[in-house]
Amino acid sequence: MAYFSEHPQYDEAIFRDNFRMSRRLFTKIVQEVTDTSPFLQQRDDCTGQLDISSLMKCNFAIHQLAYGSVPYSLDEYLQIGATTACKSLQILCKVFMNLYGEEFLRKPTYTDMKKLYARHDEKHGFPEMLGSIDSTHWSWANCPVAYRAQFSRGGHGPDSFILLEAIASNDLWIWHAFFGVSEMNNDVNVLRQSLIFNDLKSGRAPDVSFMANNVPYKRGYYLTDGIYPQWSFLIKSIKKSG
User: Is residue 220 included in any domain, yes or no?
Assistant: First the structure.
């Protein structure tokens, strides 16, 4: 293959641009998931011949995750059928959750929040800030025709999209994400439906206190824009009561 042969056609810089990671990290992930899943391993098929390699199965599955590729988009290049492509993606996602879920698919701990505080203070000058929160439009190019009315909105053109609210750390650890249909979901309505403040309201959020203008606060805050004045007041009230 052009990326993984002994003398690859594309260098490390192009690999990182296309795969959003280094070649060494990619091959490490492939090794770990194939050690866990028999389906992703290269085996003999019904004719006794070796089937598709583990590298190709993982390559196409990750392409589907990263770029939204349809199962048959790379069949001529990778020689992989749509059924195998779909199953590889499903199994890869389950393996990812089993292997990496405990470390990467979790909420910030006390230690994580301290690191977030320090990073935002150093980088942006906002002490004790957990992150910036907002929603954006995630384009859905392959939205079925029957659903297009639900996933589009006047003033945003005819293209379908899904609303996404997400929070990520500086090293791209996404520790909160909420998806919703467009309809009447503006930023405030998305925030109202998401689960980001549930732990605060239930008292389960870690107490990582700080002092601002001689006022003690038990927990950090999220930076928002001018459309959130009422929510900013609510967040302050939650922190004071908590």
Answer: yes
Helix (H) or strand (E) holding 222: strand 221-223
**Residue 68 domain boundaries:** 12-101
Same domain for 83 and 116? no
Give the tokens for residue 85: 């492509």
In a domain, 74, yes or no: yes
For each of the chain's 242 residues, which pLDDT tens digit applies? Answer: 677 777 888 888 888 888 878 888 888 989 999 998 888 888 777 777 777 888 888 888 887 777 777 767 666 666 777 788 888 889 998 998 899 888 777 888 888 888 888 888 888 787 788 888 777 777 887 788 887 777 877 666 777 888 888 887 777 778 888 887 766 666 677 777 777 777 777 777 788 887 777 888 888 788 776 544 454 444 444 445 44
Query: Quick check: pTM over 0.85?
Result: no
- Distance (Å) of CA 236 to CA 16, 120, 127: 42, 19, 15
In a domain, 5, yes or no: no
Mapped onto helix, strand or coil, the DSSP state of residue 215 is: strand
CB 119 within 8 A of CB 170: yes
- Does residue 120 sit in the same domain as residue 84? no
Q: Do 166 and 189 share a domain, yes or no?
A: yes
Q: What is the DSSP letter of 141?
A: T
Q: Which two tokens stand for residue 189?
A: 């309505």
